[in-house]
Amino acid sequence: MDKQPASSWSIHTRPEVIAKYEIFERVGSGAYADVYRARRISDGLTVALKEIFDYQSAFREIDALSILHGSPNVVAMHEYFWREDENAVIVLEFLRSDLSAVIRDAKRRKKNKGDGLSVGEIKRWMVQILNGVDACHRNLIVHRDLKPGNMLVGDDGVLKLADFGQARILMEPDVVATDENQLEEGSREPPEVIPDYVNSSQGEQEVLSKDEYFRQVEELKAKQVVRYDDTDKDSNAPDGDASCLATCTVSEMDDDFGRNSFAYDAADEEALDGGGEGLMTSCVGTRWFRPPELLYGSTMYGLEIDLWSLGCVFAELLSLEPLFPGVSDIDQISRVTNVLGNLNEEVWPGCVDLPDYKSISFAKVESPLGIEGCLPNHSGDVIALVKKLICYDPASRATAVELLNDKYFKEEPLPVPVSELYVPPAMSGPDEDDSPRKWDNYREMDSDSDFDGFGPVNVKPTSSGFTIEFP
Ligand SMILES: Nc1ncnc2c1ncn2[C@@H]1O[C@H](COP(=O)(O)OP(=O)(O)OP(=O)(O)O)[C@@H](O)[C@H]1O
Does the record carry Nucleus as a key word (predicted)? Predict the structure, then answer.
């Protein structure tokens, strides 16, 4: 890669960073961060320097990556720099591509009458993703923004989950990874903590039954041992005391392209993400991968939200198209309804208690498309597997480890070796804010209005807000 000037100079003014790293071009930027390629001066290792502009995001990412240190399918954090009144800079292993580039490349090849992804390749990508998600969930870390763009891929075909800026730790794990007080003392090496998971056998993993898995999580949540971030402690408002639909729909319609992470400003964040009662905000994740419980404003959710996103990624690997490419939150719910049928007590007992359940009603979908309708030409076995993730009732979703142990991954055609996976270059080049990828996504979503394609809607004011009825 050619050296190119970076667009932001703040990272270049950090003596502790430039003493150890030679900084090259900016390779990416997201809602909260700029990422640069760099070279560690001591040994020439290529790394990624991620400068994070948001305190809470930085805190979450450092915390989660410290706990997950050593997990083979989670991006490794070498160290970080963080002094009071300065942006955090975290030093990550450098991975030049991601799963969205893999999917895009396969789609292009298929269009040109070539092969898309083979079953063996899909299986190997999924096994790696499931291993990464399992590592998170074993440590009770909910990622909250799983999508192909947050699954980085190295030249060797190894996939690593990245972007933990929205992650939450549901409880203090057995191994305490960080001492929050030290975060303000300036640059320091991250704690050398290897989670229990890494020490356990890497082959066959202990299989907890799903009921037991969620029972343990529910028990912990009931004890209200949710770990709060520093910023959460300062706020009186519970995390997510108001839902996305109730509070930020309008700005979200304007700003949030389906593939981009939801972002809200600091004031919203304090109100929505304040912690205090173990509640969490529903305004997380990226719309296309956001589960129904979040779209309906749930603030009492857990690891299951990642499992829905996982199902969306799995379906996208199979069809090379996003499963639910909603152009707004309402459109997102509508697309899910058209595939799964209406959300009601029959399919998810308790769904009527979702904060926005009564605010949005759809006409009865007489013949839902079903997951099979979205994945024509795929075997019943693989469709059954996707259905274990894409289902309304969060408690019914299969865990990552259950999927890993499914016969699908053990029967012919077997997952190909990692070294046989094709890794295309990432599309967005250095400093390309207007990269083709972003513009393609924008064009795919030619309308960003919640109401396009629905015809007339009935909006009625109610004591708690308004009700929208779709004929
Ligand atoms: N370890 C890495 N190696 C190489 N490139 C990386 C690495 N981490 C991030 N990037 C690049 O930088 C981009 C932004 O990084 P990241 O998604 O972590 O930031 P963010 O601000 O948290 O993003 P988002 O808006 O999705 O929340 C990524 O899409 C990727 O292109």
Answer: no
